[in-house]
Amino acid sequence: MTQFFQSSARGVLLSAALLAASVTSSYAQLGIGRPVGRQIVDGIVAKVDNQIVLRSDLENLYAQEQARAEGKPLPPDLRCRILQSLALNKLLLAKAETDSVVVEDSQVKNELDRRMAYFVQQIGSEKKLEEYYNKPIKQLKDELRIQVKDQLVQQKMQDEIAGKVSVTPREVRQFYNRIPKDSLPYYSTEVEVGQIIKIAKTNSKAKQATQAKLNDLRARILAGEDFATLAKQFSQDPGSAVEGGYLGFFKRRELVPEYEAAALRLEPGQLSPVVESQFGFHLIQLIERKGDSFSTRHILLKPETGTADATEAAQELAKLRRRIMADSVTFAKAAKDNSDDKTSGGNGGLIANRTDGSSYLPLDKLDPAIFFTIDTMKVGSITPPLPYRTDDGKDAVRILWLKSNNPPHQANITDDYQKLAAAALEEKKNKALDEWFLKNRGTVYLEVDPEYTGCNLLNSSL
């Protein structure tokens, strides 16, 4: 139990951590190119059925652990631990293949687009991202696609194995009582912060200007210009613009209703009129139908918001704030019913900790915009409406609520029940995975490079 709240190599890798935005290394987050440290002569170090583990995968993960250690000594068996986790992931993929566990192409595309959009936003622009990796966006996505698909399949397999595992309050308390008192972590100041976000509404003039621009592009295409070329030049959908607006195949009910309805009214090659959805305005071209699936390309334009739109959102939030402060509605209910951020809105407005999913946020790791706002606030107070920009670049306004401010302390069952419950659940899920590995490790073919025969791969014990 001395590893309380510390992820083992297996836990980090089996949880498909590359899907999360909280992974420390940007290389690991994106999952492509630019390995940490020296360049590695590649080769296969292990095979699990038809799945392979490359030496470069092993060494790059080892280098990332070295970087995180900041000069501190690493466990002597760390390479074995990493290789074992990689092999276990390959076992998940091998069994997924034999058990016909698959993920939809649309899910892969959505995750790929989400991850790419996140990194474009973090680095500043597509051009900067391409310069950083010295590769065009399309090539980066092509290199990342297989890895994303594998991670989604691994996660689906884990969900089937341990997804229904839960813990009771009694199990949480038993878990806590097993932890040696000198192993309990010491937490720095943590806060709980709620938010209610209202996205600035687009005024009619901005909408009309956007529609007019798309109608002009439509006329140019009908006059003979290439749809894909114009999509690359004008579309504001970063995921598809680099591919000439091509979205690929989707089944019914996988795209927003307005887009799907317009696309399915078309014949192959035909252009839609301008279509509005929650994402903006689209010009759609149907490419092909295959049974219940269809493929399209589109040009997306988003109307610009202006000061008047943000003012209207701010006035709406100001009224809501007064109602909360007058106790006519709770912050949690106001967030659930009114916030345009459905993730925090569904959590009573509370911003989740991306590391453990709890509502407790370490003060020293807060977004600076939140930190400097709540730094002088009293618990229970609510800010006036503040300007805000959403992760996908939309102008918005929000109010912030400081629900709690917890001073530094050693973990205890009263103040840290959520964290303890999450750790207890993780332990129970790992036990379920261990049992699955023990049952299935003998059902696959395993070959290991002689250099690593002492690592005892696919043994459940780490």
UniProtKB/TrEMBL annotation:
Gene Ontology molecular-function annotations: peptidyl-prolyl cis-trans isomerase activity
Keywords, alphabetical: Chaperone, Isomerase, Periplasm, Rotamase, Signal
PROSITE patterns: PPIC_PPIASE_1, PPIC_PPIASE_2
Position of the signal peptide: 1-28
UniProt cross-references to InterPro entries, sorted A to Z: OMP_Chaperone_SurA (IPR050280), PPIase_dom_sf (IPR046357), PPIase_PpiC (IPR000297), PPIase_PpiC_CS (IPR023058), SurA_N (IPR015391), Trigger_fact/SurA_dom_sf (IPR027304)
Domain PpiC: 188-288, 291-401
Gene3D superfamilies: 3.10.50.40, Porin chaperone SurA, peptide-binding domain
UniProt entry tagged with the keyword Signal: yes
Pfam families: Rotamase, SurA_N
PANTHER family: CHAPERONE SURA
Protein name: Periplasmic chaperone for outer membrane proteins SurA
Provenance organism: Hymenobacter mucosus
Lineage: Bacteria, Pseudomonadati, Bacteroidota, Cytophagia, Cytophagales
